[in-house]
Amino acid sequence: EGRGREGMGTTMTAAMLEGERLIIAQVGDSRAYLLHQGKLQQLTRDHSLMADMIEAGQLTPEEARSHPNRSVITRALGSDPHTQPDLYEINVETGDRLLICSDGLSGMVCDNEIESTLARVRDPQRCASQLVNEAIANGGHDNVTVIVADVTGFAEVRRKKMARKTKLSIALVLVLFAAIVGGAAWGTNEYLHNAAYLADDNGKVAIYRGVPGDVFGLTYSELVESTDVSVSDLQPGFQERLKEGWRVDSVEAAEALVKEYREDIDAKSKPAGDEAANADASAADAASSTGGTHDANPPAPANSQGGAA
């Protein structure tokens, strides 16, 4: 309404991006582009006299850029209440880049230059500003409106899912690591608690629970018993083994070994004559016991004449 404003209208290109689905509504000669895998493609068709003439083969795109009627549009928003937009529904991918612009950009900057800038400048806001500056640098004969949006699609969903998987994996690894460490600690403790060894303790054979020496700089041994078995009474090979600690499976096994040592030493300490004497004495005792039984009831002497004595 108002003087000089009658019949005015505008172009419009609107886009709705949800996930990896893009819907566009377009009236006029503002455009929507998509940069897909580094290649730029125009998504919309201009509602303009130049577009109609190019499609009819009357002009080339290069000639249309400098044609005097290049700003004439055949459809606008506002001039006709019954105007219908062109609708586009397109599948896009994460990593694609959407560009919406007025003809102030597309009319001043070639598509290959737009493609180069979209691919080079990664930040969307800086990219939009760069495209506006390029249009102004090329003459800026029309107002320039530029929107750049990156398609994130389901990247955020995938990122969150991956983050959850990563957290679960880390938690699982930590649990397994804790289980391994706990199991190793329990096993080590059980081994150290049950294991035993024999060693020389001031010339006597001693029984220790644990292991000889140090484990990671710590000592795991406990004296159980210092026996009466002298180390000097053992064979030289056994004496050498006792110097470094003679490992056995348990305290019971160590006690059994000490018992064997004691029996061997006792057997070697008895003289051979004493053993023979003991054997003779045992035999004599047995014979004496048998003879005494017969002497207790001697038979009566025989008398050839008969009668009694």
CATH topology of the largest domain: Phosphatase 2c, domain 1
Main sheet: which strands, in order across?
4-3-6-7
**Average residue-wise pLDDT:** 81
Q: How many H/I helical runs?
A: 9
Helix content: 40-55%
Unreliable stretches (pLDDT < 50, length at least 5) are 287-309
Annotated CATH homologous superfamily of the largest domain: PPM-type phosphatase domain
Number of strands: 11
Could you say what the CATH architecture of the largest domain is? 4-Layer Sandwich
Major sheet: size, sense and barrel closure? 4 strands, antiparallel
Class by helix and strand content? alpha+beta
Given the C-alpha coordinates, what overall shape results?
rod-shaped
Radius of gyration: 55 Å
Proportion of beta-strand residues: 15-25%
CATH class of the largest domain: Alpha Beta
Name the helix and strand elements from N-terminus to C-terminus, one letter apiece. Answer: EEEEHHEEHHHEHEEEHEHH
Distance between the termini: 180 Å
Structure keywords:
four-stranded antiparallel β-sheet, alpha+beta, 43% helix, disordered C terminus, rod-shaped, 309 residues, 24% strand
